[in-house]
Amino acid sequence: MKTLEVDLGHRSYPIHIGSQLLSNSDLLKPHIQGKSVVIVTNETVAPLYLGTLKTQLSNYRCDSIVLKDGEAHKNLETLNTIYTRLLEQRYDRKTTLIALGGGVVGDIAGYAAASYQRGIPFIQIPTTLLAQVDSSVGGKTAVNHPLGKNMIGAFYQPQCVLADTEVLKTLPPRELAAGLAEVIKYGLLGDREFLLWVKDNMDALKDCDNATLTTAIERSCQMKAEIVAADEREGGQRALLNLGHTFGHAIETEMGYGEWLHGEAVGAGMVMAAEMSRACGWIKQEDLDLAKEVIAAADLPTQPPSKMTPDTFLQHMARDKKVIDGSLRLVLLKALGHAVVTADFDQAALMATLERE
Amino acid sequence: MKTLEVDLGHRSYPIHIGSQLLSNSDLLKPHIQGKSVVIVTNETVAPLYLGTLKTQLSNYRCDSIVLKDGEAHKNLETLNTIYTRLLEQRYDRKTTLIALGGGVVGDIAGYAAASYQRGIPFIQIPTTLLAQVDSSVGGKTAVNHPLGKNMIGAFYQPQCVLADTEVLKTLPPRELAAGLAEVIKYGLLGDREFLLWVKDNMDALKDCDNATLTTAIERSCQMKAEIVAADEREGGQRALLNLGHTFGHAIETEMGYGEWLHGEAVGAGMVMAAEMSRACGWIKQEDLDLAKEVIAAADLPTQPPSKMTPDTFLQHMARDKKVIDGSLRLVLLKALGHAVVTADFDQAALMATLERE
């Protein structure tokens, strides 16, 4: 087992990565303060892992809330069903909420924990590769609004994160690929060597080889933890983590949440960011080709859905959280392995990218 | 003008108290970072003060959201109308939200600011005495859930607070009295001298004498700011501010939000806390009589509505945020001017108080 520490002063917390962590109650217990635990999960994950987790928690008052599966349910209505259940069962503010599931479960349970009685303790047990390398680290919690993704939320840190590589073996290949999009992202934005390692080890990653996955998750979490520690509330550097996400969010919003997986939209979005960086003259054609090659090798889409016009892109992008005082900032590549957040780009390069010329 | 500083490290902020502050734009401008401001107010306050405030903000993109008046609208639905308006008008995360109104407007606008795009800057301009001495100070924001008051919220600090005594002159007498309940609370919980000062100056306070109000607000905010600075997230001492509130919240919840004003419920709740402290043998009969006398002099109720049975009280109190691992903690008086938070009380004294024997 590997353990990383996310360094945020008195809100620091550990990330444990390895196999069979879900059946090791010694990892959880130091992080549960009160006598009550409520597990938030979904109807896909519950039959697979809820029983195992509950067995570890037999010394606590323990309930579970099973949500419908999918991004389409990450909204205020679902959030309200969690509040109602907690209040009906009279769970107090020392209750620990555990998120057992993918990014949607983590985001919504995390935001429920942030806002229930103005904040209760919270533990993340991510069960998808996407959640293990991305959404479970860094304290971003949120739900969607019909007018935009993740528009309602909080920065709220968990007590700890358990990333069990064993549970990834039951993931559908499409979900695994979506997680690999974020792994590739870390290579693209800050570590060319790691990008090449991912390319060379793509088959082992897709086959769910335990050791290869552990290395990939560890390096990804490490990079994310460093960036988050330097910039918890997204003043500057943290926005680098949104490489491919401004284009990707536009795709997700236009298609309706859940139609394209988040990682798939990010895959296409990263290709667009690389294409635009090429159009700006910042990276070479061979860099763009390599980025596309790795993304394609992970079985991810390398272009947006054909129904997306430049207008639909621009409409959604105007609502992006990185828009400040009306000016759009994008995460682009100055080199393969070196991303920047900038509003200083050639508007023609953006239009060429959106028009897919 | 008096200025207090709430000391919370890098989240410290000033409270300005005095008359005619609303028409002094120099107080606001240093606290607005971006180019956009959205004022959240209600249909009662808007005709009186929205115009004056907007005049001060002519250099900014400035919109206003006018809510229906009353605690009954402090819920997730109203919150969602704020999110929708902000998103429709594409307000970004540098937008400053200004709460212009009483405690309900401050709580809901504050929570909207805490949660919109995971947090945007926020300024409080409280227009009721209650909000000036209580809810605008300390960073508690929340909305109600049908199963409990303030059950969904965040600790979120404003950039600054403007308490303009001039605006209190348009308050209905019942609202002014409700504010005096919290002023009396500070005397009861921590400053016997101040309690006697309030008793002696009750007529001037009810007549809205500017200088007397300024003194009362300043001392109240000072006591609250000290308690909040020592315990921002309500681990211990901060719960003292809930003197009378556990009984009071039960009254508000049972009667339906808005039927009894918050301060009226707190008035009756403080008498109950004093009666229970007397039943525990902690304060003398003459202390109880003095507490009742001051509360009655402010034209506040000194007993709960007759329909409240011990059972209805206990049911609502079991959901109180001060319940920890199933045990009820109450704020009681060890002496007049000295409150404690305790779960160590005579159950018979509680029942006698609830049964109104």
List keywords for this structure.
homodimer, alpha/beta, Dehydroquinate synthase-like, alpha domain, 2 domains, two-stranded antiparallel ribbon, 14 helices, 45% helix, 18% strand
CATH architecture group name of the largest domain in chain A: Up-down Bundle
> What coarse outline of chain A follows from CA principal-axis ratios?
globular
What separation lies between the terminal Cα atoms of chain A?
47 Å
How many distinct beta strands of chain A?
A: 11
Strand content of chain A: 15-25%
**Any low-confidence stretches of chain A, pLDDT <50, length ≥5?**
none
- Please give the domain count of chain A: 2
Question: What is the overall pLDDT average of chain A?
Answer: 92
